[in-house]
Design a protein that fits this description.
Length: 660
Amino acid sequence: MNKLASRQVHLDFHTSEFIPGVGAKFDAAQFQDALRAGHVNSITIFAKCHHSWSYYPTKAGRMHPTLNTDLTGAMMDAAHAIGVKAPVYITVGWSAGDADEMPECVARQQDGGIQMIGGVPDASPSDKRPIVSWKFMCPSGRYAELIYAQTREVCERYPELDGLFYDICFQPPLCWCANCVAGMKEQGLNPAIEQDVRSYQVLKWTRFTSTCTSILREYHRDASIFFNGGAELNHKEWHGVHTHIEMEDLPTTWGGYDKMPVRAKYFAALGSSYLGMTGKFHTMWGEFGGFKSPEALRYEVASMMMYGARCSIGDQMHPSGLMDMETYRTIGEAYRYAEQIEEWCFNVEETAKLGVILSNRSEADEGLTKMLLECQLDFDIADPTQALDRFETLILPDSVVLNEESALRIQSYVDRGGSVLLTGSSGLNPGKTHFQLDVGAAYQGPSLYENDYVLAGKSLNAGIVTSPFLFYEGAEQVSVKDAEVLATIYEPFFNRTYGHYCSHQNTPYRMDPADYPAAIRKGSIVYVAHPICSMYFRHGAKYHRDYLINALNLVYRKPVMRVSLPSCGRARFVYQRSRERYILHLTYAAPIQRGRTSVIEDMPPIYDVAVELTVGSRVTRATLIPQGESIPFVQSGDIVKLTVPRVQGHQMVVLDETRR
């Protein structure tokens, strides 16, 4: 299989039929100059766009009406001539012209209504069209056969094809188009039962992905294939249909800068090849003339690479076929740095002893990992079906449901000396009647209140106010058996209704504590009764984060890494076995929310960052990378202490160990 390229560009080209002279100014030499300026080693080029136009001579589909050349082939040849890969893009889920020609293949709601992202299906042609507005297509019937024919056409036409990228896949999650309804009935499934519809969606997309892959393999055994939309953590059924993973994050507008690390760690644990994707745009896809600063792009690239991800930067070519050289100057500043640091970023192993068992609920998982990242507590993904003893502590955020075998494995891990932090309803049996782990309490039921208040005890109140503070959701109710109470609940007088309300927002608390706790500890298990991880994702209260980290510190006493960075700083510590060295990554930038966009503009240097690291061997040298300068360190046993003189954007420190 082709090795995943490290410095990619995803070149959008969704081009209206109302624009004349499409591709007329494409120049192979200018295209190559852009790729060289950008330090690009792979560029995803277009065969078919969301307008349904093909950019090569096609019999299966329709070539763009104002295009007079094989633009796909010309871009591929130009890229290959300078050693740059050129996988090919084919749209699936959004295809406007095909939606008009094949209305029976447009995804439908149960009532027959058209499924569409943005906009409305029956808008007038003169109405203003919202951004990102397309009807969803269903890969069934005539439309699936069209995609198969176009796939075969591309595979036959281009003997040096590097790979295929199919866009907008596995969406919408449910479909009742005529093809799907007929297919369900053929399978003995009932279109009126949601679970049957979901089952058919899996059958349909499995058929589609396997057919596309089979066609590709007839012609190109080693080409890559990726179905975009199949890299979400809560859709594990699609993780195996690709040759690699592309994590489309666009942090400026799609979830921020802390979404990628947990996904990268998850796919690394699976042994997958993966890349992170950002954009050169100020906002997101489809923006002509929008630019991100070179400094911001360099920071984003470094942030992906510190988590072992190859990189992809989104661009959109002008309909004329000319590449924007300012774009590639900007990309080049980021990728020039990427070239300098690549040898220290890939093929590494986690050193983290803190394991996160994912709930597969994005708000809980991302809320937890955001708190850990802000406190520079490195972590790895733990699988309760696999060995757990390499972790000192496990965290189960908010709503982790364990089967009986996994619960027994975790309890056995605790009995052997491991520790656990649970929050919310994590650790409850699927029916939510009792805890599957011995937390020292019995489960009584969900909160009766939409919010409540917590008074943290001495072991949890470091850096926190000493009065009851607001939690935006109520705690699970438990009765203590043989656990230590760490924090108490103060209930509000009543829930806020039209009949009973107080002031502008929430009801104040009663003066006496409730008879159930907010947090408890039994031995090496700490239970926090609120869904605090999801709460942090939605509200971001510092006291909630500090409260949870105080709880974690009770059981996670020996972090592998301690770093004195502010909350916008990020840190990761890994081991590169092939070179017998440890690598510390430090980043710092402070995103600012401006309208709908998270902007990185100010990256002030952070000086004299104190670092304490746990290693497994004798360190011989500490070196700043890419500067190549040695810095002093002190080692006592397995603890190395050093001070990083300056962090601006991204800084690495390499610890070489004694040759074994």
